[in-house]
């Protein structure tokens, strides 16, 4: 039997880059967990407040297929995420 290790991201903010999207189309989730749905692994959570245009999706639950995730960054809080984003714009570091 295969056993998988999934990190505990339940109280973290996770910035997700998907292989099929540009870096500007990243997804920021809170209350993240892993689920197996239909024999596939998904990262599930809610869209973090202040991370979509006009907050139209704030608080909405979503699931992202694990095999579509290219990279993810973990932040201790939404404030840490926002501070780092603000710093990147104020320093002119656009990568």
Q: What are the salient characteristics of this protein?
A:
globular, single chain, mainly beta, 1 helix, 14% helix, 5 strands, 95 residues, five-stranded antiparallel sheet
Can you put this structure into words, describing what you see?
The chain has 95 residues and is mainly β. The protein has one domain (13-90). It has one helix at residues 78-90; strands spanning 13-18, 27-37, 40-47, 61-65, 69-75. Strands 4-3-2-1-5 form a five-stranded antiparallel sheet. It is globular. It starts with 12 loop residues before the first strand and ends in a 5-residue tail after the last helix. The model has no long low-confidence stretch (mean pLDDT 89).
Shape: globular
Largest sheet: 5 strands, antiparallel
Q: What is the distance, rounded to the nearest whole angstrom, between the alpha carbons of the first and last residues?
A: 41 Å
Whole-number mean pLDDT: 89
- The percent range for helix content is 10-25%
Topology readout:
Blueprint: E1 13-18, E2 27-37, E3 40-47, E4 61-65, E5 69-75, H1 78-90
Antiparallel strand pairs: 1-2, 1-5, 2-3, 3-4
Summary of the model, kept short:
With 95 residues, this protein is mainly β.
């Amino acid at each position: 039997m295969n056993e998988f290790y999934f990190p505990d991201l339940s109280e973290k903010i996770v910035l997700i880059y998907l292989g099929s999207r540009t870096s500007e189309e990243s997804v920021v989730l809170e209350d993240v967990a892993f689920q197996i749905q239909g024999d596939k692994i998904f990262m599930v959570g809610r869209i973090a407040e202040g991370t979509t245009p006009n907050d139209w999706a704030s608080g909405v639950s979503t699931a992202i297929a694990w095999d579509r995730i290219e990279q993810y960054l973990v932040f201790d809080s939404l404030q840490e995420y926002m501070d780092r984003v603000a710093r990147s714009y104020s320093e002119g570091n656009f990568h």
